[in-house]
Amino acid sequence: MQKFLNITQDGQIIYTQHGKPFLKGNMNYFSLSHGGNYSVIAVHKKNIGIDIEKIGYGDAMAARLMFTTDEKAWISGSNTRFYALWTQKESILKADGRGFSLSPNSFSVLSGCAWETDTFFYDNHVITCAAKSPFKIEWELISAKELMGV
């Protein structure tokens, strides 16, 4: 993370009451996620959230708990759509800062959502970023050693 966040010592990362990490004394916000074969990080000047999931078999119980009626209808048995919605919901919960203390089915990402999201697919994984204002995704594939500054 040193490459992207310039963390040089313990104590630079502090947490909100809901556990959202941020950098002490830094104007950049960040979000981390890992899923399947990859880890991802998003850095922005405003609150941002990111989530990555490997596409597998959609979880019917999770869909009942996390998704609104219109979202459940939109999924219609599609694993790709399930994971696209899942990552959108989770990235918004992370960006918001309240995490799962905010009920995922209290808002729909399909209509009237106050968050900007960008979803893309990479190597059978779904990645979504969310922020309150428009943003641009720039990405690069790096090794874990390079990410940690080793």
SSE map:
Elements: H1 2-5, E1 13-15, E2 21-23, E3 29-35, E4 38-44, E5 48-54, H2 60-66, H3 69-75, H4 79-96, E6 116-122, E7 125-131, H5 144-148
Antiparallel strand pairs: 1-2, 3-4, 5-7, 6-7
Order of helices and strands: HEEEEEHHHEEH
Overall SS class: alpha+beta
For the record, the CATH architecture stands as Alpha-Beta Complex
Mean pLDDT across every amino acid position: 85
Q: Which outline best applies? A: globular
The largest β sheet comes out as:
3 strands, antiparallel
How many domain modules? 1
Low-pLDDT ranges = none
Question: Main attributes?
Answer:
Ribosomal Protein L22, Chain A; 27% strand; 7 strands; 150 residues; three-stranded antiparallel β-sheet; alpha+beta; globular
Description:
The protein is of the alpha+beta class. It has one domain: 4'-phosphopantetheinyl transferase domain (Ribosomal Protein L22, Chain A), CATH 3.90.470. 27% of the residues lie in helices and 27% in strands. The radius of gyration is 16 Å and the shape is globular. It starts with a helix and ends with a helix.
What is the compact description of this entry?
With 150 residues, this protein is of the alpha+beta class.
